[in-house]
C-alpha cells in the first residue's frame, strides 16, 4: 500500500472564504516506511494526517493510493473505499471516543462493521489487545472507563489495529501521557512497524518520540515542508528546528551546549546512550 501526495494544497472553508493551510506538499509513504511529521502547533500536521488518511480532499494537487487517483473516503465507492480501509487513523486523544460498556465490545465495533463473522471478530479483538500489551482475559470484560489514561489510549489504538490496517497514522499518540503511558505507546508502535509490509506515519511535536522511532522526518512550518531527512540530518539543524518552533530533545540540547563551549562532540546524537558515548569518547580523548 503506497500513499502519495503530489503538489497538494489544502484550505479550510469558513465564513465564505478560504483559509490556506497546506501548500505544495509532496510526500510518499510506502511499505516499510516510518515517517514522522513534525512542526509547531498550527503548522498543519493534523490536516496533513487527514489528507493522508483520505478524510479530506485537496483543493489542488493529487492524492494517489497504489498509484490510483482516488477520491476521499467520504465519497469513496468500490475500489477506492476498500483501499482506504487499509489506512488506519488514530486521532488525537482517541480515548475520548471510547463508548462501549466493555473494552472487548469497543474494539469489536470496527471489525463487526466491516461485516466479519462473530468468531473472527473475537479473534481480532484478542489479537489487537495483545498487540497493545493488554491482557484480553483480564481486561476485555472491564469498562474502558475504569482504566488508566495510558491503558484507555491503548484500547482506542487496539480498535484501529483490529481493522488490520497496512498504514497506521497516529496523531500525537503520546501527548498528555505519563512516562509509563508513553513507553507503552512507543512499544506498540515499534511492534506494529516490525511486521512486514506495514508503514507508520507518526504526527508528533515531541522530538524525543521522533528521534526514537522515525526513519524519515518532515518538518512543517506554516503549511510548507521546511525540512526533510533522516532524524540525524534533522537534529543536526538545531537552530533551524528552533526557528520553526520546535525544541530538540534534551540530549541534543546538551550536545549543542557542549559544542558551543568548544567540546568536539557530535550534534546529531539520537538518544541518551549515544550522548553518553560521545561524552565518554571526548573525555577519554584527553578533553
Ligand atoms: N476545521 C477547521 N476549520 C478552519 N481552520 C482550521 C480547522 N482545523 C484547523 N484549522 C486551522 O488550520 C491550521 C492548521 O491546523 P492543524 O492541521 O490542526 O495544525 P497542527 O496539527 O500542526 O497543530 C491552523 O491555523 C488551524 O487553526
Ligand atoms: Mg494537531
What does this protein structure show overall?
With 287 residues, this protein is an alpha/beta fold. The protein contains twelve helices and ten strands. It has two domains: 239 residues, P-loop containing nucleotide triphosphate hydrolases (Rossmann fold); 39 residues, no CATH class. Helix content is 39%, strand content 23%. A hairpin with a 2-residue loop joins strand 9 and strand 10. Helix 3 runs parallel beside helix 6, helix 4 packs across helix 6 and helix 6 runs parallel beside helix 7. It is globular, with a radius of gyration of 20 Å. The termini are far apart. The model has no long low-confidence stretch (mean pLDDT 93). It binds adenosine-5'-diphosphate and magnesium ion. The site of magnesium ion has 4 residues, from helix 1.
What is the CATH topology descriptor of the largest domain?
Rossmann fold
Placed side by side, the strands forming the largest sheet appear as 6-7-8-3-9-10
Give a quick account of the main beta sheet: strands, pairing sense, barrel closure.
6 strands, mixed
Number of domains: 2
Rg value: 20 Å
Percent helix, as a range, is: 25-40%
* Structural class category: alpha/beta
The outline comes out as: globular
Overall CATH architecture of the largest domain: 3-Layer(aba) Sandwich
**Roughly what is the average pLDDT, rounded to an integer?**
93
Note poorly predicted spans.
none
**CATH uppermost class of the largest domain:** Alpha Beta
Name the bound molecules: adenosine-5'-diphosphate, magnesium ion
The CATH homology group name of the largest domain: P-loop containing nucleotide triphosphate hydrolases
Instruction: Count the beta strands.
Output: 10
Amino acid at each position: 500500500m503506497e500513499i502519495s501526495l503530489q503538489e497538494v494544497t489544502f484550505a479550510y472553508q469558513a465564513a465564505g472564504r478560504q483559509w490556506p493551510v497546506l501548500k505544495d506538499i509532496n510526500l510518499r509513504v510506502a511499505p516499510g516506511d516510518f515517517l514522522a511529521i513534525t512542526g509547531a502547533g498550527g503548522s498543519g500536521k493534523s490536516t496533513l494526517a487527514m489528507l493522508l488518511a483520505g478524510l479530506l480532499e485537496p483543493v489542488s494537487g493529487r492524492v494517489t493510493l497504489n498509484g490510483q487517483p482516488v477520491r476521499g473516503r467520504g465519497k469513496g465507492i468500490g475500489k477506492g473505499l476498500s483501499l482506504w480501509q487499509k489506512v488506519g487513523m488514530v486521532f488525537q486523544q482517541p480515548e475520548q471516543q471510547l463508548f462501549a460498556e466493555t473494552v472487548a465490545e469497543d474494539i469489536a465495533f470496527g471489525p463487526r462493521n466491516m461485516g466479519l463473522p462473530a468468531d473472527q471478530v473475537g479473534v481480532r479483538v484478542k489479537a489487537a489487545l495483545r498487540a497493545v500489551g493488554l491482557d484480553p482475559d483480564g481486561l476485555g470484560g472491564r469498562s474502558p472507563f475504569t482504566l488508566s489514561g495510558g491503558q484507555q489510549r491503548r484500547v482506542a489504538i487496539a480498535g484501529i489495529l483490529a481493522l488490520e490496517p497496512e498504514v497506521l497514522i497516529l496523531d500525537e499518540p503520546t501527548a498528555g501521557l505519563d512516562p509509563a503511558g508513553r513507553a507503552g505507546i512507543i512499544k506498540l508502535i515499534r511492534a506494529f512497524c516490525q511486521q512486514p509490509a506495514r508503514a507508520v506515519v507518526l504526527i508528533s511535536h515531541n522530538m524525543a518520540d521522533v528521534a526514537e522511532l522515525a526513519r524519515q522526518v518532515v518538518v512543517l512550518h506554516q503549511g510548507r515542508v521546511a525540512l526533510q531527512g533522516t532524524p540525524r540530518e534533522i537534529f543536526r539543524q538545531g537552530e533551524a528546528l528552533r526557528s520553526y518552533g520546535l525544541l530538540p530533545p534534551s540530549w541534543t540540547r546538551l550536545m549543542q551546549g557542549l559544542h558551543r563551549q568548544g567540546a568536539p562532540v557530535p550534534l546529531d546524537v539520537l538518544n541518551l546512550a549515544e550522548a553518553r558515548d560521545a561524552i565518554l569518547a571526548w573525555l577519554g580523548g584527553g578533553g
